[in-house]
Amino acid sequence: MERLLLVRCPELLVEDEGGAILRTFAGVIEAARTYCPWITPVRSGICTLATRGPARFFGGEAEVARLVREAVRGVPGVSEVQIGIADGLFAAHLAAQSVAKGCLIVPAGESVSFLAPQLLSVFERPALTDLLRLLGIHHVGAFAALPELHVHRRLGRDGASCHEVARGLTGELPGLRLADIQHRLDQLQQKETPPPDQPSFWGGHRDGDGRAVRVLQAVQQLLGAEAVMTARRQGGRSPSEQVRLVTWQVGEAKGMTRRLEPWPGQIPSPSPALVYTTPHRIEVVGSDGQPVAVTARGELATVPRQLSVEGGPWTAITAWSGPWPVWEQWWTPSRHRSARLQVVTAPGLAHLLTKQRNGWWLSATYD
Questions:
Q1: β-strands 102-105, 82-87: how paired?
Q2: Of 144, 174, 192, 293, which shows the fewest CB atoms inside 10 Å?
Q3: 235 and 37 in contact (C-beta within 8 Å)?
């Protein structure tokens, strides 16, 4: 499950007809975006950000929480800010609700333990809570201990969804996220600053977009929000870091068009057409047949001439560019050093290679 920081502004949870609360919430999102470019609105007054990147950059989750809280408290119209950090949306939201002010951080891997002593009412499913109470079950932990098969048979899909959250199999409970909140924020922005006309994301007419959105919403209602995922661009040095899968919501189709600021150490454009989920082990040698090394100064020790993918035939390298060295978390014992190299091979293909301590890897291929 994705580790999330959730921002909750209690006074913004209920929208007003004039849109003033929604405008204030848009300001909250912009304030949080100071420390992470990708903020996901959940509903009015609640938004999340993935903590992995910001925590590494700012020195830990507690520091990110402090910075975000201070930024949001500076938004006009916001006086109370609750922050929760946990594995998954549901646990993060509950953690935020558990503090009157400030921040509650649930350690990584301990969301199930955090949920266990909570009353079943946290699921906001009165019928399910009443039924389980008749069985003598009052807490989330006792509910999680029930056999999965019995839960599916007796409590239906909604009960099974709560059971999966209680067991830590999923981090999101249907109903917490409002699918149209991003759409309403986009509409608000369009009213204030009308954007130029753009073609439909799905192609064709706008009614096609509407039908597609309704279908995807129906799938989420049947199978849960995490059943429909979409790709979202983010900052990162390598192509595999620049896109992540997130839960789809209305307005998400526009997410890939957002402008990203330059990222230090990022591979220059164009982006590769194929990024390998599991990189392929390769050998790269110079004209003397010896493996090509990268020096401590981040330079190639010799000119690369040939490569072989996983013991296959040797292919000539006709051109190359780089390398681009990366030294991540250099201040910790787990520091990681690598270098990226772009090469063109004899058949006219271009590849992105990565040099690590244990050798060379084929990371991506260009069109």
A1: parallel
A2: 192
A3: yes
pLDDT digits (tens, 9 = 90+) for 18-39: 788 999 999 999 999 888 878 8
Q: Identify the residue with better confidence: 328 or 358.
A: 358
**359-366 and 274-285 as β-strands: parallel, antiparallel, unpaired?**
antiparallel
pLDDT one-digit tens code per residue, 169-207: 988 888 888 877 887 887 777 676 544 544 544 444 455
The domain over range 3-167 is classified in CATH as 3.40.50.720: no
What is the reported pLDDT for 334? Answer: 57
Cα three-residue angle 110-114-118, rounded to 5 degrees:
160
* 96 neighbors 72 (Cβ within 8 angstroms): no
Show me where the domains of the chain are located: 3-167, 197-257, 274-366
What span, in angstroms and rounded, lies between the C-alpha atoms of 335 and 206? Answer: 49
| 3-class SS string, 292-357 | CCECCCCCECCCCCEEEECCCCCEEEEEEEEEEEEEECCCCCCCEEEEEEEEEECCCCEEEEEEEC
